[in-house]
Amino acid sequence: MTTPYPIGIPGKPWTDKEKAQWLAVQQIRRSYTQEVAEQLDRLPEGFAVEQYGQLDYGDNSYPLYGVKSPQWQEGRPTVLVTGGVHGYETSGVQGALGFLARRAKDYNHKLNLLVAPCISPWAYETINRWNPEVLDPNRNFTPYSPVPESALLMAWVQQQRTDILAHIDLHETTDSDNAEFRPALAARDGITNHNWNIPDGFYLVGDSDKQEPDFQQAVLDSVSKVTHIADADHEGKLIGTPIARRGLIYYPTRQYGLCIGFSEAKFKTTTEVYPDSPRATPEQCNQAQIAAVIGALDYILKQLP
Q: Per the database record, which ranges form the Peptidase M14 domain (predicted)?
């Protein structure tokens, strides 16, 4: 028997009362300033760190940062890397920062890079999927988005006036998906919760409208040198979706309002690592995210004239 979520009445969507109850129990558990912002101050020379917005939640203000690579050139192919759409997915943030610190300079000669390492800083500090308004940024990368985390990122990208050739969005699937976040979602919406089988290992979610299977495989091949790729469950699925090949599923990302769905990029993928695996460490998860970006960029460079 499933234990009811501690907030709300089963079968009834939350009102402002329940949302306020949820917000009241959230606590700051780590520092965005120390773990993200201060890391940006230490990037190699030449990277341009831009503040593209600010979130004001209660007594806390969070500047939002994006990074542009050195040697930016108009007309050059641009690659977007995003992390921290869901703040609790730590390696997405730390992987993006690690890529910037250690590997991004290797690609400045042929590509423009845009990197937003932590799109949801309040959720990073409170280790949450939602923002304080009980909304999921990764369902709201849509026109006129009501979620500032999503809307500000899209506006910053648009301001660059460049076509995005590729977008790599760094995520995790964790045990807390089933323990907390999916039950909370069901409670919020007044629906029945159905947990999914959490894959043990790394996998990708591609865009069903722009599949580019060779690109996806290049990312998987790069990551496989760092950590293991997830196998499908007994139904041939990952998180309830039939696999296209080992370690890969596709979603209609624009329809779902997912981060990789908002641009017209030809190459796009969402990474998913599993930090709770007994076969992986937090550092391996960070390295897997870096390897995913490297695999994507190396593939793209081979496609350029």
A: 28-305
Decide: 269 and 296 in contact? Cβ < 8 Å: yes
Q: Judge contact between 85 and 137, C-beta under 8 A.
A: yes
**pLDDT at residue number 236:** 97
Domains of the chain are 27-179+219-229+256-303 (3.40.630.10)
H/E stretch holding 65 reads strand 60-68
d(CA 69, CA 47): 5
What separation, in Å, do the N-terminal and C-terminal C-alpha atoms of the chain show? 59
Between CA 85 and CA 96 the distance in angstroms is 12
Distances, alpha carbon 285 to alpha carbons 87, 92, 136, 143, 173, in Å: 15, 9, 23, 32, 11
Q: What is the DSSP letter of 268?
A: E
**Residues contacting residue 246 through CB under 8 Å, at least 6 positions apart:** 220, 229, 231, 232
34-90 pLDDT tens trace: 999 999 999 999 999 999 999 999 999 999 999 999 989 998 999 999 999 999 999
Do the beta carbons of residue 198 and residue 297 sit within 8 Å? no
Confidence of residue 1 (pLDDT cuts 50, 70, 90): very low
Distance separating alpha carbons of residues 277 and 271, to the nearest angstrom: 16
